[in-house]
Specification:
Rossmann fold; seven-stranded parallel β-sheet; globular; disordered C terminus
Length: about 375
Amino acid sequence: MSSSRYRVVQWATGNTGQRALREVIRHPSLDLVGVRVYDPAKEGVDAGELCGESPTGIIATTDRAAVIGLNADCVIYMPRATGRGATRAGLTEDELVDDVVAMLESGTNIVTTTSDLFAGGVRFSDENRARVLEACEQGKSSVWASGSDPGFITETLPFALLSVQRRIDRIEIEEFGDLSYRPSANMVMEQMRFGKPLAEFDPDRRKNHLFGEYQPPLSVLADAAGFTIDEWTAEGGVAAAKHDTTIVSGEIKAGTAGSQRVIITGRSAGTDVIRFIQYAYVTMDVDPAWDLRATGWRVRVHGDAPFDLDMAFPVPPEEIASYVPAYNANGPVNAIPYVCAAAPGILTTEDLGFILPRGPRHAS
């Protein structure tokens, strides 16, 4: 990569956005030129104050047009959860595409954690995907989406493991998440439905959401492995806590939902070749007895050079929440020079190759 400097805008400053903003300020080759916020209380606040850094002189604004008008080299676009309907950021798919198209048409590249832009933007309507591609061509600009999961765990790490294979039979990814230390009762007990009677637990509720999030990036992995997927399926499941358990967010009674999982499978010629399983739990002592592990991932590649990797978070469970933003934010920040140098289009990880951090890094 060249030693160029890049003018960067941070768009949205939630947990992940704040971490990305901090790393842009610290990065030796990035110059922060603007910050877009949604919360009126953040209007006029210095960017450094928003992320715990020294004052930068760059003031946050809710003015969308003013930020787009900066004509930055790259925008780190991180509005909250996006999708088909209204979102927590108040965006619809059309509004999200309006943002993206306006930046790309002006020649500004985009790195984002927005899952709508995974896998070449296949989740978009045909009309919206065409609008984004046309904007890329007009502005000679690119957009790339990633995060930790989907992202790093569905593409970057498996791609490295695939690089030494000649025969690939199957790829399996398991994610484990211990939510017993999460201090959000609304998220754990209401949104995730832990502690609810099994008769009130709908396993398809989360399955449908995760299938929409993960199937597109998993299809990128399948293509990279040389698989032709004939069928994608998803199934949800729930396991009951075997004993009364107290967690940070409340009480989990025996017999209520203590663990849940979603299994996404890609089949080729009747054989499972891609399998992704996400486990979320508040206790490991459940019925049926699943092979639950500490928060982290297990990645297995079955081929002529097989791998079986266990990756647990090397921090105490009660501290994990403070590390999670880095897993989502650092990849897009590191990718900025690569995306700016890429050919126009909606990029996948395969288009960028291996992304490495550039320049000296700083201790937290």
